[in-house]
Design goal:
The chain has a single domain (4-285), classed as Metallo-beta-lactamase, Chain A. It is of the alpha+beta class. It is globular. It has helices spanning 4-7, 32-36, 41-48, 86-91, 99-105, 123-126, 147-153, 166-171, 173-179, 240-256; strands at 11-15, 18-31, 57-69, 72-76, 115-117, 142-144, 185-188, 191-195, 204-209, 214-217, 260-262, 271-277, 280-285. It contains ten helices and 13 strands. The chain has a seven-stranded mixed sheet with strand order 7-8-9-10-11-12-13. A six-stranded mixed sheet has the order 1-2-3-4-5-6. 25% of the residues lie in helices and 27% in strands.
Length: 287
């Protein structure tokens, strides 16, 4: 079987010794209607026709980034991981390789990762922090999420906690609280997290700046090409009005400064850029 990793292989030099590589940590399926949120089906039906299955689900890749700089290595996102029950695995049609073998396949030692930054703590982004036996998958890495995200994830609001695997998160909570940040923060020189909210209360983006080029990863604010319209947000977004506002602001920067975009769940064309298109934007895949 051709793995998704072989189908989409991308890395780029950003200048100044900074390099970014896309690592796909498997894929799963998710309900198309939930992913397209409040957008009427007639507007998106054709966009997903080739991948939708008999359960109305589409393919979601688990896109991660490995960033190398002279100051260290940062992994962005960890995917679903390996500690998922067979029942949940089947229900979500989840297929690996999960992040640890995916990194090894790409030639990176998980033990060399200095920091792991996740856009948010939903199960499909923070699920790969532990090995099957419960040991840390990235033993020397700082674990960077927003403190506000931890507070929501471990809270008791029934609507807000739905996307989190609280028993799993509780196993890495101490590590997470030690590495948590509040607001914009530079993890290592050239790699910053920027709080966005919207999709979840403590959602954040990651900005990687080399001397020649900037790459941005906006987590689940920008999963698939159609999210280039700031109003196209998912039904999973806890604060959709915030998503629309923050997307419009970040997209303006991305378009003006020609940032390279990495989409969080796009399986086939995850690398691109944003172009202004009337009152919205258009995603143009470059890979
Ligand atoms: Zn997600």
């Amino acid at each position: 079987m051709t793995t998704i990793n072989e189908a989409v292989h991308w890395s780029a030099e950003l200048g100044g010794g900074t390099r970014v590589a896309l690592i796909q940590a498997g894929r799963f399926r998710s309900d198309a209607g939930a992913l397209l949120g409040v957008v009427p089906r007639i507007m998106w039906n054709d966009l997903v026709a080739s991948e939708i299955d008999d359960k109305h689900r589409i393919v979601q890749a688990l896109n991660c980034l490995l960033i190398e700089t002279p100051a260290g290595r940062v992994l962005v996102e960890t995917g679903i991981g390996d500690r998922i029950s067979d029942k949940a695995r089947a229900m979500r049609s989840y297929q690996g390789p999960w992040i640890v073998p995916a990194l090894e396949n790409a030639g990176f030692d998980p033990g060399s990762v200095d920091a792991v930054a996740v856009s948010h703590l939903h199960y499909d982004h923070a699920g790969g922090m532990l090995l099957a036996d419960g040991d840390l998958a990235f033993p020397r890495a700082r674990f960077v999420a927003q403190l506000a995200e931890w507070e929501i994830a471990m809270g008791d609001n029934p609507r807000l906690v739905a996307g989190y695997d609280q028993p799993e998160l509780s196993l890495v909570r101490d590590l997470g609280l030690r590495g948590a940040v509040t607001g914009e923060a530079e993890i290592i020189p050239g790699v910053s997290v920027v709080p966005t909210g919207g999709h979840s209360a403590g959602h954040q983006g990651v900005l990687i700046r080399g001397t020649d080029r900037t790459v941005v990863f906006l987590g689940d604010l920008f999963m698939r090409p159609w999210n280039a319209n700031p109003r196209w947000v998912t039904a999973f977004d806890d604060f959709p009005l915030d998503s629309v506002t923050v997307k419009a602001a970040l997209f303006a920067h991305a378009a003006e400064e020609s940032w390279t975009i990495v989409l969080s769940h796009e399986p086939v064309h995850p690398i691109g850029r944003l172009l202004r298109d009337r009152d919205r934007y258009r995603y143009e895949a470059t890979v």
